[in-house]
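Study this pair:
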Amino acid sequence: MKKKKVKIGLAPTRRNVFSVEDSLRYKALIEEKLKSWNIDFVNLDSLNKEGLLFDRLEAGRAAKIFTDAEVDAVFAPHVNFGTEDAVAKLAKEVNKPLLLWGPRDEAPLKDGSRLRDTQCGLFATSKILMRYGIPFSYIVNSRVDSPVFERGFKNFTAAARAANSFLKARIGQVSTRPGDFYTVIINEGELLERWGIETVPITLIDVEKGVLNMVKTDKRVKDEVDDFKARGVTFKDMDDDTVNRIAAMKLYLMDWAERENLSAIAFQCWDALQLALGIMPCFVDSELTAIGIPVACETDINGALTSILLQNASKVESPTFFCDLTIRHPENDNGELLWHCGPFPHELAKEKEKAFVGKHFILSSECPGTGNWEIKGGDITVSRFDGINGRYSLFMGHAKGSSGPFTLGTYVWIEVPDWPLWEEKLIYGPYIHHIVAVHDKAAYALYEATRFIQGLEPDPAQPAEEEIRAYLRGNDLE
């Protein structure tokens, strides 16, 4: 899985009454810093001889430079006081996540004059952005080499990637929801009207026919099976025909996702599929998730949307995993089991030599295709997007992997600072037992991403909202 690189539209801004020379010096310092972080950016050097935004009449042309370059976000550093209305007009036209920041000023010169008054300009611009109805992220006024600036900038790029991936997402829906799962009922029209999110349906008959045809005619099926074996995937008590159907389903869904430009898939994984093909899709789900096409079980479209947000908010390449909040730890009051029938990516397995794909141990069909392995621990972010009565929120929290008893399926035990607090928040929120997790501390980027998704409220557990904001201010770096 390779995350999309965020392309930044760099719009350094100044005001005429302050030093042009110092503005250009800081423009160069900022560009040098972004290059050192390997940031893909487009500047305004073609706008005027300075490459700076200061003439409100040039805001439209600056916006066109960015839209033509298909930037994913805009960064408007105030290299002196800045021109607030030009920044607002530019941001309004580009309509992408916006970051506001300016380098901290030095002491006044010996004659008492000042070169920039950057902070003063930032206060002016923030007010005008609010008047224009433009959401933005802000990094505390700090020096170019400050770790506060680096933390804030990199968190913003992750937040922008997450928000952009959510807006206008396309979710492949395989069949209807399972009859017993009232919990995954959604308002499809509302998702489309609010955020441009589309569901792309396909029937199980289409999947059945496509998979069986692939088994007979597609040479890639054998290659896929060979790849399973080369990666050390163990299929327990399964004949070759069954493994071929599993490989063909993976290929069929990959082709469908590419053809329809899908962001994620929500799969009705039981029990009609077992009647049609005699397999569980759990291992296939894990394989698709591992390559960046996250799959949510039980036709959970909101779960698929959570996967998109978390996959893109994370700063690491490790894949997400779709889980049930299942049982509390039998001995640790702050422990919880994250589990599901087998969709956690095989690459996350803690001990691959013990991992195997086998039969379902709960469903009466006992069909094969479930993954069975404990995954590694470490830092884990847990999240859930959901809503009810037109109100939507995004639960988020940081956990640590912990030890716990063996169970079948794919699983990891986690520990949090105060599980009763989490449980209470989940019970009273619009959430269900399905959550998504990733090996990272991604709540900071998720929190910022909600700034750019109108109508989505952040709902942090631990760290709490004030702790997240303190982290982004860099309180722990002082």
